[in-house]
Amino acid sequence: MNMPTNRYCIKLGGESGQGINTLGILLSKAIKSLGYDIFSYREYPSLIKGGVASYQIDFSNKYISSSSQNCNILTILDPEAVHEYLHSLNPNGILLYDDSKVEFSPEEQSWITQNQIHVIYLDSEKIAVEAGGSSIMANIVMTSFLWKLLGFNPNDLANIVKEIFASKGEEIINKNILCLNAGYNTSEFKEEYTQKTYIPNLPSEKKDSKILTGNDAIALGAISAGVRAYYGYPMTPATSIFKYLGNTYKETGILIKQAESEITAVQRWGI
């Protein structure tokens, strides 16, 4: 059984392009809204599309400035991601997955037993469709089920869902909320699951600090240092720096130029 701690870690894993980043941002904002200090890490695979990727969130009632090596809860949205990230779980951790096609190798089954991993299968696509949503909203079902594992109030998660999907329109928001409630209240949830999670106590006062990405910090640092020109080409993971500086150029006066390729961007500096 897990020991009480002032730090907890969850990891999402799935196919690149499957919405892992959106879910990671959703959970990061929701956990932050409760008053916790968070440190999130997004994995950038060197692929345009396909392959597996992860999003890890550490949170604590104290200041943290790094990612944990292993996680307490691993939530998987793609069969291949199970095999990729299974061994990143701490002993006594929880594996939550939603694909019935997952088959564990003998070595994986032995590792799960030895480390007392609690394995939970959830047919999230079925739950989403029965709730009135679409199959793609299975991600929200998984997220809300994870939210219940953490013992948090669904209303706090719903508030962030409404914020993130505000531009999608009322119908999409309402369907996502239906799926959220269905995942949170599903009869598949067992009270014994919560006995394996020891969430840090909330801080005495909620913090007013905001979530800042590493690339936001780089862009702000460039502005503060007096950078006057930025030549770039939108390529992950530097695109968000380009976007931040581009969105603020009227206030900062920085010259922003998009080149035809990353090579041309370097040549603009005469290198």
UniProtKB/TrEMBL annotation:
Q: Name one Pfam family in it.
A: POR
Q: Which UniProt keywords apply?
A: Oxidoreductase
Which GO biological process entries does UniProt record here? response to oxidative stress
Q: Which organism is it from?
A: candidate division WS6 bacterium GW2011_GWC2_36_7
Tell me what this protein is called: 2-oxoglutarate ferredoxin oxidoreductase alpha subunit
Please verify whether the record's keywords include Oxidoreductase. yes
Q: Which stretches make up the Pyruvate/ketoisovalerate oxidoreductase catalytic domain?
A: 17-185
Q: Which residues form the signal peptide?
A: none
Matching InterPro entries, A to Z? Pyruvate:ferred/Flavod_OxRd, Pyrv/ketoisovalerate_OxRed_cat, Pyrv_flavodox_OxRed_cen
User: Which PANTHER family does the record match to this protein?
Assistant: 2-OXOGLUTARATE OXIDOREDUCTASE SUBUNIT KORA (PTHR32154:SF20), PYRUVATE-FLAVODOXIN OXIDOREDUCTASE-RELATED (PTHR32154)
Q: Which GO terms describe its molecular function?
A: oxidoreductase activity, acting on the aldehyde or oxo group of donors
